[in-house]
């Protein structure tokens, strides 16, 4: 696997950042959102007033609340409760195979994959479930995989100030399998290495070995 240093991207920490609001700064009402779904059903060629579709706009909007729940969570807040009593633990902490569902921002179809997240603490550690919640908080948004990968790494680096962070994301994009080029079984892999994982080949290969990449 080619290990490229990630492209640094701005990390958006709060729920009121510019990525979470429409350009007008206000959310449409629920009924406006449901009307938009009715329009899309008509655009697809069906009748939103037939029995089977009557409740669909409501269901779609509720699904959207789930798919895009990340906009109402604050990743830096998730990491804010950390522990310093580590008795000098300074080895890699790794959470492997964190499954996630996201949606591609170009087609709004699912991106399904797993993330592997590691850091080497400087003095602070977090509860291990927090790493999974970070993946969730950025995954449940409109995404591209490259940015998802960088955002996960950057927020851990910025909030915990560890010696290093490594993130590898492997995912299948349904916009490639169900439309467009129709290539099933293709997985995209992205990685972001910061601090010691970027600078120290030994540390990087320890991580890659632990996730079965070497
Ligand atoms: Zn897409």
Any key phrases for this structure?
214 residues, alpha+beta, GTP Cyclohydrolase I, Chain A, domain 1, GTP Cyclohydrolase I, domain 2, 2 domains, five-stranded mixed beta sheet, 8 helices, 5 strands, 36% helix, binds zinc ion
Provide a concise account of the structure shown:
The protein is an alpha+beta fold and 214 residues long. The protein is built from eight helices and five strands; from the N terminus they run αααββαβαβαβαα.
Question: Overview of this structure, please?
Answer:
This protein is an alpha+beta fold and 214 residues long. The protein has two domains: 10-67, GTP Cyclohydrolase I, Chain A, domain 1, CATH 1.10.286; 75-210, GTP Cyclohydrolase I, domain 2. The protein is built from eight helices and five strands. It has helices at 30-44, 56-67, 75-78, 129-139, 145-160, 174-177, 196-199, 201-210, and strands at 93-104, 110-120, 142-143, 164-173, 188-195. Strands 3-1-2-4-5 form a five-stranded mixed sheet, with helices on both faces. Strand 1 (93-104) and strand 2 (110-120) form a beta hairpin. Helix 1 (30-44) crosses helix 2 and helix 4 packs across helix 5. It is elongated. The chain binds zinc ion (ZN). Zinc ion (ZN) is lined by residues 104, 106-107, 173, 175.
Name the beta content range.
Answer: 15-25%
Give the radius of gyration: 20 Å
Name the ligand types. Answer: zinc ion
CATH topology assignment of the largest domain:
GTP Cyclohydrolase I, domain 2
Low-confidence stretches: 10-20
The domain tally reads 2
Q: How helical, in percent, are the residues?
A: 25-40%
The CATH class of the largest domain turns out to be Alpha Beta
Number of helices: 8
User: What is the level-2 CATH architecture name of the largest domain?
Assistant: 2-Layer Sandwich
Tally of DSSP β-strands: 5
Quick check: average pLDDT? 89
> How would you describe the shape?
elongated
Order of helices and strands: HHHEEHEHEHEHH
Class computed from helices, strands and strand pairing: alpha+beta
CATH homologous superfamily heading of the largest domain:
GTP cyclohydrolase I, C-terminal domain/NADPH-dependent 7-cyano-7-deazaguanine reductase, N-terminal domain
User: Describe the biggest sheet?
Assistant: 5 strands, mixed
> Distance N terminus to C terminus?
8 Å
**Order of strands across the biggest sheet?**
3-1-2-4-5
């Amino acid at each position: 696997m080619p290990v490229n240093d990630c492209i640094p991207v701005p990390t958006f920490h709060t729920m009121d950042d510019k990525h979470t609001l429409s350009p007008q700064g206000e959310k449409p009402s629920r009924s406006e959102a449901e009307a938009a779904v009715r329009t899309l059903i008509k655009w697809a060629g069906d009748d939103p007033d037939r029995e089977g579709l009557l409740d669909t706009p409501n269901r779609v909007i509720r699904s959207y609340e789930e798919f895009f729940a990340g906009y109402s969570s604050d990743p830096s807040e998730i990491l804010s409760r950390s522990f310093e009593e580590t008795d000098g633990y300074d080895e890699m902490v790794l959470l492997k195979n964190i499954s996630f569902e996201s949606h591609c921002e170009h087609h709004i179809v699912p991106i399904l994959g797993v993330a592997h997240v590691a850091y080497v603490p400087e003095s602070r550690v977090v509860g291990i479930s927090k790493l999974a919640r970070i993946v969730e908080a950025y995954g449940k948004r409109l995404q591209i995989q490259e940015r998802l990968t960088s955002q996960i790494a950057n927020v851990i680096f910025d909030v915990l100030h560890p010696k290093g962070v490594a993130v590898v994301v492997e995912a299948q994009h349904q916009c490639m399998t169900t439309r467009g080029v129709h290539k099933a079984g293709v997985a995209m892999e992205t990685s972001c290495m910061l601090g010691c994982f970027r600078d120290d080949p030994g540390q990087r290969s320890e991580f890659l070995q632990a996730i079965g990449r070497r």
